[in-house]
């Protein structure tokens, strides 16, 4: 069967040759599976060729799935899926866009051209090339297909499209509300830049996006992003709790009372032990906070723990510190 399925010698083969146009779904799955090793990453995603549910694309509208997607892949899934050869920002944005590919007949560039926020054509090319070269590439693509299946079957409890619109059209935090939050947590409100960082923190929480993707809040220069990273790492638990309560009130006021504050797809049925990254919740949060307090630089703290900076941020954000270091 493998010989029959691969008898064409074209350089860039189709996932399903014309000779099999009339094939049953079961036979099409077998043929696509046999041809998987010859396909590029986009076609592998489109036909789900590395999975037991390989099939012809159903013509899924990417814009429909986009409502269930943040602009950057959920951080816990990025920790599990990202190979070390791909920078976190590139991976999270490209992987989120790649989730629109399974089952779609749209060209990948068309999907990416309609992706909200800043775009870079080379990002998708880099993503596909490095995923293909990685020894875990097949497992990564299979996991992306599985997540897309979960979204199609079960949907997402968050309408991210509505969240993005809400965050763009609403003042997420005014100076008075920020002062109240800081006073309740016993922390200084600081100056205007600190309020800007707090607004950015809320934008990230509500939309699941990354700071440099924010349409109106981001001052996307390296110095600002570095300071914002430090701000997020140093937020104490009390302030985080009050910011989350503020975000909850924003959602409730704008008709999103049935949505959780944050969410990511469960790992049920996905073989996470085949993925390149660790279990994002396996490390003790107390160790993370101790290293974060002891080391002046994020990279040093992450290296001390044997994790990535991305992983460090995930743990600190999920389990904020009960202590406070003043952030100006």
Give the overall shape.
elongated
State the helical fraction.
Answer: 40-55%
Q: Cα distance, first to last residue?
A: 66 Å
- Structural class, by secondary structure, is mainly alpha
Mean model confidence by pLDDT? 91
Can you tell me the residue ranges where pLDDT is under 50 for at least 5 consecutive residues?
324-328
Largest sheet: none
Helix-strand layout with pairing:
Blueprint: H1 2-5, H2 25-35, H3 41-47, H4 62-66, H5 75-81, H6 88-98, H7 108-113, H8 121-133, H9 137-154, H10 160-169, H11 175-185, H12 192-207, H13 222-234, H14 237-253, H15 285-294, H16 298-305, H17 309-318
Helix pairs in contact: 8-9, 11-14, 12-13, 12-14, 15-16
Summary tags:
0% strand; 2 domains; 54% helix; mainly alpha; 17 helices; 328 residues
What does this structure look like?
- It is built from 17 helices and no strands.
- It is an all-alpha fold and 328 residues long.
- Helix 11 runs antiparallel to helix 14.
- The relative contact order is 0.12.
- The C terminus is likely disordered.
Concise overview:
Helix content is 54%, strand content 0%. With 328 residues, the protein is mostly helical.
């Amino acid at each position: 069967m493998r010989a029959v399925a691969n008898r064409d010698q074209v350089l860039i083969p189709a996932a399903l040759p014309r000779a099999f146009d009339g094939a049953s779904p079961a036979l099409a799955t077998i043929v696509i599976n046999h041809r998987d090793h010859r396909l590029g990453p986009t076609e592998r995603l489109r036909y789900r060729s590395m999975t037991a549910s390989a099939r012809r694309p159903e013509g899924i509208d990417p814009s429909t799935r986009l409502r269930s997607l943040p602009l950057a892949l959920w951080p816990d899934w990025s920790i599990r899926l990202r190979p070390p050869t791909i920078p976190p920002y590139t991976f999270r944005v490209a992987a989120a866009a790649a989730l629109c590919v399974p089952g779609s007949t749209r060209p990948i560039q068309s999907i990416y051209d309609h992706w909200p926020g800043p775009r870079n054509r080379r990002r998708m090319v880099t993503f596909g090339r490095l995923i293909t070269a990685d020894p875990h590439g097949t497992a990564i693509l299979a996991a992306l297909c599985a997540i897309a299946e979960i979204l199609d079957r079960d949907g997402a409890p968050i309408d991210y499209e509505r969240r993005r619109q809400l965050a763009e059209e609403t003042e997420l935090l005014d100076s008075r509300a920020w002062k109240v939050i800081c006073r309740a947590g016993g922390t200084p409100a600081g100056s205007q830049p600190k309020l800007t960082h707090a607004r950015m923190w809320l934008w990230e929480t509500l939309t699941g996006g990354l700071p440099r993707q924010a349409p109106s809040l981001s001052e996307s220069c390296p110095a600002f992003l570095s300071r914002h990273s430090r701000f997020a790492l140093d937020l104490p638990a009390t302030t985080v709790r009050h910011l989350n309560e503020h975000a909850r009130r924003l959602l409730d006021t704008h008709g999103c009372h049935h949505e959780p504050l944050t969410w990511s797809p469960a790992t049920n049925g996905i073989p996470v032990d085949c993925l390149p990254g660790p279990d994002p919740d396996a490390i003790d949060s107390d160790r993370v906070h101790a290293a974060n307090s002891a080391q002046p630089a994020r990279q040093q703290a992450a290296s001390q723990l044997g994790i990535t900076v991305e992983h460090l941020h995930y743990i600190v954000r999920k389990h904020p510190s009960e202590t406070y270091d003043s952030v100006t």
